[in-house]
Amino acid sequence: MAELSVIGQRVPRVDAWEKVTGQAKYAADYSLPDMLWCKLLRSPYPHARILNIDTSKAKKLPGVRGIVTGKDFGGWSWGWMPATRDETPLAVDKVRYMAEAVAGVAAVDEDTAEQAAGLIKVEYEELPGVFDPEEAMKDGAPKVHDYVKNNISVEYHWNFGDVDKAFAESHIVREDRFRTARATHGYLEPPAILAYYDPTGYITVWASKQSPYFHYRHLAACFKVPLSRVRVIQPFIGGGFGGTKNDSLAGDFCAVLLSKMTGRPVKYIESMEEELATSRRRHSVIVYSKMGVTKDGLLKAIQHRVVADGGGYTAIGPLSMYLNGFMTTLPYKLPHFKFDAYRVFTNNPIGAAMRGHGVTHTRFAAEIQMEMLAEELGIDPVEMRMRNAIDNPKPGEIYETINKVTLKTCGLKQAIKEAVEDPLWRDRDKLPKKEGAISWGTGISGSSYSGGARQMGHQACAAIIRLCEDGTVNLITGATDCGQGSDTVLCMIAAEELGIKLDDVAIKRVDTAYTPVDPGSYGSRVTILAGQATQKAAREVKKQLLETAAANWQVKPEDIEIRLGEVFVKSDPEKKMPFIRLARIACYSGTGAVIMGTGYSSYGIEHLDLTNGIGNGGCSYSFTAHTARVGVDMETGQITTTDFTIASDCGRLLSPVQAEGQIEGGAIQGLGQALYEDFIMDRGKTLNPTFLDYKMPHALDVPNIKLIDIVTDDPFGPFGAKETSEGSIVSAPPAVVSAIHDATGIWFKELPVTPEKVVKALKEKK
Amino acid sequence: MTTFYRRLPKFNYLAPDTLDEALSLLSRYKGKAMVIAGGTDIIPRLKRREIGAPEHVIDLKGIPGLDNIKYDVSGLSLGTLVTIGAVETSAIIGEKFSVLAQAAQSMASPQVRNRGTIAGNICNAVPSADSAPPLLTLGAKLKLVSQKGERTVGIEDFFTGPGQTALADDEILQEIQIPHPPPNSQGIYLKLTPRRAMDLAIVGVAAVVIPQDGVCQDIRIALGAVAPTPIRVRKAEAVLKGQKFDDALIEKAAKTAAGQSRPIDDHRASADYRRDMVEVLVKRAIKQAIRR
User: Fold this and answer.
1) Cross-chain residue pair B1–A41, CB shorter than 8 Å
2) B267 shares contact with chain A (CB less than 8 Å)
3) Residue of A44, A118, A698 lying closest to B196 (CB–CB)
C-alpha cells in the first residue's frame, strides 16, 4: 500500500466541535413559526379489534387543530418487501401489539396535544393474544394477521451438503436450545420529526433517520406525490443501531398528514418511555442447534432451526432471518449446513434490526456449542478454534463457503493467535481462581460479520466532490452519519485521494433535494460503499487538476503528485505550488470548466438471494477473536467483567480513533446483551420501558478493553477497509458466557445471564 | 387509553418562604396539595401519570434553615431539606453514623443526590428506600409538624405500607432525629443491585452491631425492598444478641432474617431470589461489621 497521509491518522471527528459545544441540532431542536405539536394515542391492549373511535370531545378542546385516525391514510400500507406490506401508519381495524398507535392529534402546544389525545375514546373488542413464538406457530393459536398461515411471517429452508450423512459420520453430535434476549438500541435521542406539507404540495421534513431515503420513498408512496416533492433534511442523529430509525413511524406519518390538513408545520417528539415500549427491537430468537464433530474436533455439520419472535408486523424481518443464517458458515470451515428459519407473528412489539443484525443469535449458539463439544472431547478451546478456522486466502485467491460466501481476506487465525498471546489469556492460570465468594473465569470466542451490505434494490450510492476556488472541496453524499462517524471517514478518504488536508474537506448533511440517493446507514455499508464512491469522485477531480497542472508545467499528468496540499513534479520537486494555487488556475484559467467529480459504488451490487441463502450478503467480512475475564459472586450470582481483549481484522482502520471506539462500543453493547439487557414482558406489556429498569451497562460496569489490530487490506474496500463493531457485538456474548462457564462450570444458554439465573443454576448443580 | 406523556400535568405551584407559611398552605389545601423537597421522586412520577396530579404543589426548597445537619449532645438531626449528597459528604455522619453515609453514597447519581433529600426518600416510602434500613437500625425519630402542633414518631411506626406513611394530610416531616450510637457500634449497609451504581436495591440490608470481646452486646438489622415497608428483623437480632459470634450463629441469624422477609415477585427479581439474598447479605453485613 502506498504511503498514506490522512488515512490511518488519529484525528478528531469533523463534527466534534459542534457536538461538544452543543451547537449540533437534532430533529427535536428544529422549529418553525406557527408550528403545531403532535401527540399519539396508543392502544392499551396487545390484540384488539377497533370498533369505534370517537374524537368529538378531543376536537372541542380549545387549541386542537387536527385529529387523524387510521382510516385517514386511505388504506395505504408499507413493508420491507412488496409481499410484506402489512403495516399501516395507524392501526385501522385492529391493534396487534401493546401501545400501537391508533390516533394522532395536532394542537397549538404539547400540553394541549397530550390532553386531547387523552380525550379520544376508542372502543375496543379485546382479542385473545399470543405472546410466545412457539405457541403462535401451533394450529389454533390466535391469528395476528390473516394473510399468513400459523402466524409465520417469514420462513426459509436452506440445505447445503448432506447434514444427515455428516451427523451419522460424526464422532459426537450435540443438540441444544439457545435463546437470545429482547434487546434494544438504547440511543440517547428518541425519534423526532418536524414536518411541513406546504400548500403547493411539497413535503419537507427534518427527521431523525439513519436512512433518510427509506423515509423519502415511504412519504412519497403514502401521500401519493412524486419523489421530487418530498424533501428529507437530515439533522444530526443521536445514534441509530438499526431498527427504529431505519424505518418510518406512526409519528412521522401523522405529523405529515396533520400538516397537510392544517397547513401548518407539525412537530412530533417521541418520549423515551414510548420509544422503549414500542421500538423496533432486536428479535428474541430461539436457536435449536445441532452440531457434529469428528474425533479431532473438526466441524462436520451444523443444523439450525430458529424461531424468532417477530411481534405484530413484518418490518425488516425477511432480512433479519436471512442474516440469522447466511453467516453461520463463517468463521469456521463448515462442510454441511442446514437452516430452517421461522419468523413468527406475536402480539409483542415488532422485532427488527439491530447492530450485529441476525448473527448475534446463531453465532452465540454455535460458539457455545462448539465449546461444549471441545469440553466433551477434551480439546483446548483455542486449539478447537484453530483447527476449524478459515485460513487467510493468498492474495488473488478466494475462499468460498458451502453457501458460496466468498472471502478475499480472513484474519481469524492471526486474531486468535494474537489474542491468546495477550496476558489476559496467556497468564490466566497464574491469576487467582477464587477470592472469597468470587470465582474467576476466562473465556474466548470468535466471530465474523459482513460489511458493505447488499440491497434488495435501490443500490445507488454516490458522491459528488466540488472544488472551490479557495483550494477546499465540498463533499456531497447521500450517506448518513447517524453517530458512527462516517462523515469523518468520508472526508479522510476525499483528502487522501486528493492530496489535501482533512480540514480542507467540508461535508454536507443529507438533503434529498440536493444529495445523491443512497440506501442509508445499516449493514456496515457506509465506509465501504459510500467510501468507494467518494474515492472515485475524488479521483475524477484529481484527474482534472493534474491535467491543469501538467499543462501549466508542460509535463505529463502522471508525473505530478499532490500530497498534503502541495503539488509538485515527482522528478523535479523544486517545481511545486500550493494546492490553492492549482485550484485557482483550474478555476480561473478561462476554460469555463467547473471542477467537479462524481463517483458511485460498484461493490456488491449482485442481488441478495433470500430464498436459497446462496451467495454474499456483503462485500467483505471482518473477523474477531475475543477473550474475556469475569468474576462471579457464587452467592449472589453477580458478574463483574474486568477485561476484554479483542483482536479484530477490520481490513485496515481508516480512522483509528473512531474505529477503536466502534469496536469497544460494539463489545460493550454486546456485554449488555450478555449480562443485563432484556425487556421483561407480561402478556404483551413491556414491564421495564425505562432506562432505570432496562439495564444497559454503565461506565462502571465496563471492563478494561485492549484492542489488537489485525491488518488484512481487503481488496473490496477503500484502502483495504472492512467493517468494525458488528464483529465485536457478536463476539462479546459468547466470550462472556464462556468465561462464566470457566468460573462456574455451568453453560448458560439463555441471554442475558442475570444474577438470578446464576444463583438458580448453582442451586440446581448442587 | 395509553398516552405517553412528556409534560408535567398542570398544578398550582406554591413556594412558601417560611415553614409556618408552608404549614398554613398545607392546612388550607388539605388533601389537595402535595409537598415536595428535591422533587426527584415526585416529578418523574407526575410526568408518567403514575400518581394523580394534585391541585397544588408546595415546594419547601426555598425555606431557609431546613437544610441543617446538627450534631450535639442529643445526637444528630437532619432538617427536611438535607440532601442525600450532604449526608454522603458530611464528616460527622461518615464518622459516627457511617451506615447512613454508606446508604447515601449508594443512591442514584451525584446529580440526583445533590437535589434529592433524605426526608423525601423517607416520605416517599418505597420499600426499597435506601435511607430507611440505616435509620431503622439507628433508631431514628421523626419530628412531624402541622399548624396544630408537633409530634414525634419512631421511624418504625412511620411506614404503614408501600408509599404509605403515618404523615397526616396537613403534616410536614421537619426533622429526622438520630440518637448517639453506642461508642463501639459498627454499621454496614449492603445493597444488592444488578449494576455497580445508579440502580434501585433488589435487597438492602443495614446492620448495626456492638461487639465486645467476641460477644454480640447488641445488634439491629433492617431490610429494604423485601416487604411492603422497610422492616427491622428482631427475631434475627435475638439469635445473636448476648451470644458469642460464630459462623453457625451468624448463618442462623441470616436465615432467620430471610424467614422474616416478605418479598414479592416483580420485574426486578423474584421473591425467592430476594429471600435468598437477604440471607447472603445479612451474613455479609454482620461479618463486615464485626471486622471493622
Assistant:
1) yes
2) yes
3) A698
Please answer yes or no on whether A99 and B192 come within 8 Å at the CB atom: no
Question: Domain residues for A102?
Answer: 27-127+204-239+243-267
Kindly report the CATH number assigned to the domain that includes residue A643. 3.30.365.10
Residues of B within 8 A of A40 (CB-CB) are: 3
Torsion of CA A508, A509, A515, A516, to 10 degrees: 110
| Chain A residues touching B273 at Cβ < 8 A | 755-756, 759-760
Query: Which residues of B are less than 8 Å from A759 in CB distance?
Result: 273, 276
**Coil/strand/helix, residue A401:** coil
State whether B6 and A110 contact (CB < 8 Å): yes
A450 phi/psi in degrees, rounded to 5: -85, 150
Say if A156 falls within a structural domain.
Answer: no
Q: State whether residue B250 sits within 8 Å of chain A by CB.
A: no
Our count of domains for chain A comes to 3
Q: Using CB atoms within 10 A of its CB, is residue A394 exposed (0-12), middle (13-18) or buried (19+)?
A: exposed
Q: How confident is residue A38, by pLDDT bands cut at 50, 70 and 90?
A: very high
Tell me the pLDDT band of A607, cut-offs 50, 70 and 90.
confident
Whether the pLDDT of residue A533 is over 60: the answer is yes
Neighboring chain A residues of B199 at a CB cutoff of 8 Å:
692, 695
What pLDDT, in 10s, does the model give residues A341-359? 999 999 999 999 999 999 9
Q: What is the mean pLDDT of chain A?
A: 96
Please check whether residues A482 and A445 belong to one and the same domain.
no
Chain B residue with minimum CA distance to A110: B7
Spatial neighbors of A233 by CB under 8 A, at least 6 apart, are: A204, A205, A206, A509, A510, A511, A512, A513
Helix (H) or strand (E) holding A744: helix A726-744
Q: Which chain A residues have a beta carbon less than 8 Å from that of B268? A: 693
Q: Which of A120, A269, A759 sits opposite B1 (nearest CB)?
A: A120
Nearest-CA distance from A266 to chain B in Å?
17
Q: Tell me, what CATH number does A247's domain have?
A: 3.90.1170.50
Contact status, residue B171 vs residue B182, Cβ threshold 8 Å: no
Instruction: Kindly state the average pLDDT of the residues A307-324.
Output: 97
Domains of chain B: 12-60 (3.30.43.10), 186-291 (3.30.390.50)
- The interface predicted TM-score of the complex, written ipTM, equals 0.96
Interval B230-246: pLDDT, tens? 999 999 999 999 999 99
Size of the A and B interface in Cβ pairs below 8 Å: 79
pLDDT at A60: 98
Which of B3, B6, B192 is facing A269, going by the closest CB pair? Answer: B6
Strands B75-79 and B172-178: antiparallel
Residues B105-164 have pLDDT tens digits of: 999 999 999 999 999 999 999 999 999 999 999 999 999 999 999 999 999 999 999 999
The answer on A96 and A216 residing in a single domain is: yes
Q: Are strands A560-563 and A566-569 parallel, antiparallel or unpaired?
A: antiparallel
- For A517, the grid coordinates are 440517493
- Shared domain for A445 and A466, answered yes or no, is no
Cell of A706: 485492549
Q: Which pLDDT band holds residue B292 (cuts at 50, 70, 90)?
A: confident
**Cα–Cα dist A105/B84, whole Å:** 41
**Do A485 and A442 belong together in one domain?**
no
Residue A582 inside a domain? The answer is yes
Chain A residue closest to B270 (CA)?
A: A756
At residue A1 the predicted structure's pLDDT band, cuts being 50, 70 and 90, is low
**B291 interfaces chain A, CB cutoff of 8 Å:** no
Q: Are residue A614 and residue A719 in the same domain, yes or no? A: yes
Q: Answer whether B6 sits within 8 Å of A759, measured CB to CB.
A: no
Residue A670: what pLDDT? 98
Each residue of B78-102: pLDDT tens digit?
Answer: 999 999 999 999 999 999 999 999 9
Classify residue A278 by its DSSP letter.
Answer: H
pLDDT band at A90 (very low <50, low <70, confident <90, very high): very high
